[in-house]
C-alpha cells in the first residue's frame, strides 16, 4: 500500500503542473488584464468591460500578455506610464519567464499578494476559508445523516408506497436548481415576501463577539441554516438513490440468501453482512462529496446569501483579473482536490481491508 500511495503522490506533481499550464495559457487569450482594469478606471469607464464595447483595435489586449504597446482606452495615456504599470505587475517579462517564476514561488509556498486588495493570497484564503468550510462540512454531514438511513429504508421497502412517494420527492428536489431553491428560501423565510425568520446575509450577527458561548452557537446555526439547506438538496437526492441502489444490488447476491438460509434475522443479515459491502461506494465517496460542495456549489450560494467565502473570492478575482488570487487559489484548490482523490481511494481500504490497490495494479 505504501508503494501505491507514493506513486499517487508523485503523480500529483505532473497533474498539478498540467492544470497550471493549461490555465496560464488560456489566460493569455482572455481580454482585459489588471492594466486594462486600471486604465478603465482612469478613463472613468468603471471597469475594463466598458472599454471593450467600442474598441476595435485591441488585438494585444490579452490579460497576461505583457510588453504590449496598445491597450484599449490607453491612447491618451503616456507610454511611460503604461510601461511603468507593466513593470509593477511584472508584465514586462515574457510569459514563459513569468510562469516559471510563479511556479518557483508556489513551490516555496509564496503565493504573492493581491493586486487590488493589498493583502497576501494565503491570508486572503485563510480569511475566507471558515465560510466555505462551514458550508461544505455541514452540508456533507447532513446529507449523509439523512440519505443513508433513508436509502436503506427505501431498499428494504422497494416497490412499496413509501418507496414511490419518497422517490417522487427526491426527484423533484434533485430537479430544482440550487440557486432557484436558495432564492425561494430567501423569499419565504428571510423577509422576501412572507416570513422574516432567518437573517439574509453573513455568518454571524454584528454583536457576535459580545455573546456567550451558547448564544454564539445558536447565532451561528441561525445564520447558516438556509445556505446549508440550499447547498444540501442536490447531494441529498444523489446520495439517497446511490445508497438504495447499492443495497439493492447486495441484497440480491448469493451470500445474502445463504445467510438467510442459516436462520439469521433480517436485521442481522442487513446490518451484519449487507451494510459493509453496500456502504463501500457511499462512504468512500465522502471526501469527493465534501469537496464538491466545498468548491462546486459555494459560488452561487455564497453570492445569494452574501457570504464572504472562497467561491465568491474566486468569482470577484476573475472579474477583477486579480491574477495572484486566481492562480494562487487555483493551485491550492487543485492540490486539495488531488489529495482528496487519493483519500477517496484510501477510504475504500478503510471500509473494506480486503481491497489491495497494489495487487490490482500489478
Automatic annotation (TrEMBL):
PANTHER family: INNER MEMBRANE ABC TRANSPORTER (PTHR30465), INNER MEMBRANE ABC TRANSPORTER PERMEASE PROTEIN YEJB (PTHR30465:SF66). GO terms for biological process: microcin transport; transmembrane transport. It is a multi-pass membrane protein. Its main location: membrane. InterPro entries: MetI-like, MetI-like_sf. Residues 129-348 form the ABC transmembrane type-1 domain. The lineage of its organism: Bacteria, Pseudomonadati, Pseudomonadota, Alphaproteobacteria, Rhodobacterales. GO terms for cellular component: plasma membrane. This is Microcin C transport system permease protein. It comes from Antarctobacter heliothermus.
Amino acid at each position: 500500500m505504501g508503494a501505491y500511495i507514493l506513486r499517487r503522490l508523485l503523480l500529483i506533481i505532473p497533474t498539478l503542473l498540467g492544470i497550471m499550464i493549461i490555465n496560464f495559457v488560456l489566460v493569455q487569450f482572455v481580454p482585459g488584464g489588471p492594466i486594462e482594469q486600471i486604465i478603465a478606471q482612469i478613463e472613468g469607464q468603471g471597469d475594463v468591460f466598458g472599454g471593450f464595447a467600442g474598441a476595435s483595435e485591441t488585438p494585444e489586449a490579452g490579460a497576461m500578455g505583457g510588453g504590449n504597446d496598445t491597450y484599449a482606452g490607453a491612447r491618451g495615456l503616456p507610454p511611460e506610464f503604461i510601461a511603468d504599470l507593466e513593470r509593477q505587475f511584472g508584465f514586462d517579462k515574457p510569459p514563459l519567464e513569468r510562469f516559471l517564476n510563479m511556479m518557483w514561488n508556489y513551490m516555496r509556498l509564496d503565493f504573492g499578494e493581491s493586486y487590488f486588495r493589498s493583502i497576501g493570497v494565503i491570508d486572503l484564503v485563510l480569511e475566507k476559508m471558515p465560510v466555505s468550510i462551514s458550508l461544505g462540512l455541514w452540508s456533507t454531514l447532513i446529507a449523509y445523516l439523512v440519505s443513508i438511513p433513508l436509502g436503506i429504508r427505501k431498499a428494504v421497502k422497494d416497490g412499496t408506497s413509501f418507496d414511490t412517494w419518497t422517490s417522487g420527492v427526491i426527484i423533484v428536489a434533485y430537479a430544482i436548481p440550487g440557486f432557484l431553491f436558495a432564492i425561494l428560501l430567501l423569499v419565504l423565510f428571510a423577509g422576501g415576501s412572507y416570513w422574516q425568520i432567518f437573517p439574509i446575509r453573513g455568518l454571524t450577527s454584528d454583536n457576535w463577539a459580545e455573546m456567550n458561548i451558547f448564544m454564539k452557537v445558536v447565532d451561528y446555526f441561525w445564520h447558516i441554516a438556509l445556505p446549508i439547506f440550499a447547498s444540501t438538496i442536490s447531494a441529498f437526492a444523489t446520495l439517497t438513490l446511490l445508497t438504495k441502489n447499492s443495497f439493492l444490488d447486495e441484497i440480491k447476491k448469493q451470500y445474502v440468501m445463504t445467510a438467510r438460509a442459516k436462520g439469521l434475522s433480517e436485521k442481522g443479515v442487513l446490518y451484519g453482512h449487507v451494510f459493509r459491502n453496500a456502504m463501500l461506494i457511499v462512504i468512500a465517496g465522502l471526501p469527493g462529496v465534501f469537496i464538491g460542495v466545498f468548491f462546486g456549489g459555494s459560488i452561487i450560494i455564497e453570492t445569494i446569501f452574501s457570504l464572504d467565502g472562497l467561491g465568491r473570492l474566486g468569482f470577484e478575482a476573475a472579474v477583477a483579473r486579480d491574477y495572484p488570487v486566481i492562480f494562487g487559489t487555483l493551485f491550492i484548490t487543485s492540490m486539495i482536490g488531488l489529495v482528496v482523490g487519493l483519500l477517496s481511494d484510501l477510504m475504500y481500504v478503510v471500509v473494506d481491508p480486503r481491497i489491495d490497490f497494489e495487487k490490482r495494479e500489478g
